[in-house]
Amino acid sequence: MARHWPTDAFTALPERPARRVGGAGAPDAVSRGEAGEPGRASAAPDSARRAVVALCNNPPDNPASQTLARILGDAGLTAQPIHPTAARGWRRALGTWLSPRALRAALRADALVVHSAFALQLPALCVAALRGTPRVGFLWDIYPGPRCRGLRGRLWRWAEAAGLRLAGTVLVPSADYVGPARAAGARTVLIHPLPAPHSHRRPAPVRAPGPLRIGYAGALDSLRDPAAAIAQHVRPGEPVELHAFSARPAAPTQPGSELRIVWRGWAGWPELSAQLVGLDYGLVALDPAHSGPAFPQKVACYLAAGLPVLLAGPPMPALEAFLSEHGVGRRLEGPLPDTACAQADRVRLCRGQGAALAALASPEIPLAALL
Fold first, then answer.
1. What's the CA dihedral at 159, 161, 163, 165 to 10 degrees?
2. What are residue 24's phi and psi, to 5 degrees?
3. Strands 40-41 and 30-31
């Protein structure tokens, strides 16, 4: 069988005019203080005449790609997205590094936007830095994780640190990320919350009858195991349903357990929003041994769908403070909430949903001002 080597894993892009601009990193319109201190921005530049290129590490239907597109759209920026093809694993990574189209896009761009993992876009970031092109990088996850060790881990950490340094201004979801981002290699770090979907659903004032129903949307792996996160918190004699929205099938329900696992499959936002109706909570579950920051976008999705957030896992100070401030969720400590508590949390969400979603739509500095 012939091997297909991924010498160019990017889809083709139409040519568009671009003008070269000077100055590396953030523009003069942004002033910054000490580490992690936000500055002030003047009026955002007119993006209609600028060629903004967004380098994505995933196909267009991936949540990360959709999030980046939504952020750019909300900022009023018209950007050329460049996505890898359907190649997976190391083929996609190698194709990202070797793609001449990605490098040509970096050569003609007036501004470059990337997202983690930054190591995958290191050649394009080098080209943009040499040209003095303004660059912004969204850091949503700290790569590589602690499970990546040995020579591979050292090489990846070096490449990721180099990418973070070359990314110009690095935008993180919450204050928890600022210190780890700087430790990983970033120089200028600002907070830009992950946005909620544009369509919002008001919570139903009264929960549907039946057992406690918890939804989980996202990957299922050793770091994120929602069933394990809540199994020990189930009250004896009180059945609980865990609805998992993931590409990978959830583990089956254990015989005799009060926890019933319902695997619903992966769904994009419109379908997910409709399928979350009738559930009591949206679950954020991380391995308690996880030591990095976390403020996942599923928080915004749950709130936009009208669900309070249930948090299980290690301490997440920024996320916990956000949930407490707006009354839109709780940390799981002790037994799971009963149905009466779920009803009370639903009422609180009715009062706090608008302010919480508004807070997620308020970056420290508008993205357009950085480009």
1. -150
2. -95, 155
3. antiparallel
Both tokens of residue 41? 């921005």
Distance CA(333)–CA(331), nearest Å, equals 6
Residue 245's contacts (CB-CB under 8 Å, 6 or more residues apart) are 215, 216, 217, 218, 264, 265, 266, 267, 272, 275
- According to the model, what pLDDT value does residue 93 have? 67
Contacts with 354 (C-beta within 8 Å, 6 or more apart), sequence order:
none
Q: Which residue has the higher pLDDT, 4 or 79?
A: 79
How far apart (Å, rounded) are the C-alpha atoms in residues 172 and 37?
A: 13
Task: Assign domain 30-192 one CATH number from 1.20.272, 1.10.3680, 3.40.1130, 3.40.50.
Answer: 3.40.50
**Amino acid in the structure at residue 37:** E
Phi, psi dihedrals of residue 116, rounded to the nearest 5°: -65, 145
pLDDT at position 103 over 70: yes
> Residue 242's pLDDT band (boundaries 50, 70, 90)?
very high
Q: Which two tokens stand for residue 328?
A: 């839109």
Select from 3.40.50.2000, 3.40.920.10, 2.60.40.3080, 3.40.109.10 the CATH code of 212-360. 3.40.50.2000
* pTM value > 0.85: no
Q: Which residues contact 328 (CB under 8 A, 6 or more apart)?
A: 303, 308, 309, 322, 348, 349, 352, 353, 356
> Going by C-beta distance under 8 Å and a sequence separation of 6 or more, which residues neighbour residue 295?
173, 174, 176, 177, 193, 194, 316, 318, 319, 322
Ordered alpha helix ranges (H), 248-308: 269-275, 298-304
